[in-house]
Design brief:
This protein has 13 helices and 10 strands. It is of the alpha/beta class. It has a 10-stranded mixed sheet with strand order 7-6-5-4-3-2-1-8-9-10. The radius of gyration is 19 Å and the shape is globular. It starts with 6 loop residues before the first strand and ends in a 14-residue tail after the last helix.
């Protein structure tokens, strides 16, 4: 079977101005062996050649890499939609002009709760800077979304955060579950929260907010409101299973390729772009086997008994792995048989 690459999440640097308590990649300092500008431009060309439609740039902090604009221009010049994801701390007028010139499709800003909670888990003053970035971006006409990473402490403050976010003309707000990996694991952060309450919050407020409100692939699945919960106002969307290695990949700043950049473990590295081409890695029939060779009999626990199992395939591979080490069993699914 031929797989078509549609989306890539590309970590272009680990350099960051923060040391967030739940950063999955333990970002802070750049890797000593990060891809050079020339290597990054070559990777961009390979993504274009493979027909990739959308690239999300992550860090670290994307804008700490001096050549980020050059990389984005190569991608957008090849017809790829680019979405940088940022903590918003470094925004100024020059950066806004660069984003416009680079023709980014949108920018996503991380905002994880009211000021006290956001700053506690990130850095003092980061909440105000993030909101300032949102204001600057939206005023400049750059499509802007907000991403909130949920854990035990901030999940109960969504209503308060929503009232703040409603003041800005963003186009989407995505809620995602904090995965117990990287700094979150090192710091013993309690990643757990009431999934059903969060899903009810989304369902009850989807029409109240003037933007798309939905959840990421590691929350769900298959309730009656699943279409709305996926951020689709038509209500017709539903979770179709993990797409890592099926239509998406992750690339880290040293050129390692995974099916998903959230699968931040060496066991999931399928190859390195300094050693072989992206095409070779993507088309290798033995790569991404956890998804490409999935069969229903791999499901375990409640997922093995669930009527949606063949469609959901057990939920988010990364979240499953870091929560309890079982790739084919969602630990907090709200719809699997109890």
């Amino acid at each position: 079977m031929a797989y078509k690459l549609l989306r890539c999440v590309w970590e272009i640097t680990l350099s960051c101005c923060f040391d967030c308590r739940y950063c999955g990649s333990r970002a802070g300092r750049a890797r000593k062996n990060e891809l050079s500008t020339e290597e990054c431009l070559d990777v961009a060309d390979q993504l274009i050649h493979l027909g990739c439609k959308r690239v999300s740039l992550i860090g670290g902090e994307v804008f700490l890499r001096h050549d980020w604009k050059e990389i984005v221009l190569r991608l957008t010049g090849g017809g790829v939609a680019v979405n940088p994801i940022t903590n918003g701390f470094l925004f100024n007028d020059r950066l806004l002009n660069d984003l416009k010139q680079a023709s980014v499709e949108s920018v996503s800003v991380s905002l994880d709760g009211p000021r006290r909670i956001h700053d506690q888990y990130r850095q003092s003053g980061s909440y105000d800077r993030a909101l300032r970035a949102v204001a600057l971006l939206t005023s400049a006409g750059i499509p802007t979304s907000i991403i909130t990473t949920l854990h035990h402490e901030n999940a109960g403050h969504l209503k308060e955060l929503m009232e703040v976010i409603r003041q800005y003309p963003i186009f989407a707000w995505q809620l995602q579950a904090c995965s117990p990996m990287g700094n979150a694991s090192d710091n013993g952060l309690d990643h757990r929260f009431d999934f059903l309450k969060v899903m009810n919050f989304i369902d009850q407020n989807a029409d109240y907010v003037p933007f798309s409100l939905g959840m990421a692939d590691n929350i769900g699945y298959f309730t009656k409101a699943d279409g709305r919960l996926r951020g689709n106002r038509s209500g017709k969307a539903f979770f179709r299973g993990c797409l890592a290695g099926i239509s998406s990949i992750g690339i880290d700043s040293a050129g390692n390729v995974r099916g998903c950049e959230s699968m931040y473990d060496e066991r999931f590295i399928e190859g390195n772009l300094r050693e072989e081409s992206l095409k070779s890695i993507w088309e290798n029939p033995e790569n991404f086997a956890y998804n490409r060779k999935f069969t229903r009999d791999l499901l375990t626990g409640r997922c093995a008994e669930c009527p949606w199992g063949e469609y959901c395939a057990g939920g988010c591979r990364s979240y499953n792995y870091f929560v309890h080490g079982k790739l084919y069993e969602s630990p907090y699914c709200v719809s699997a048989p109890s």
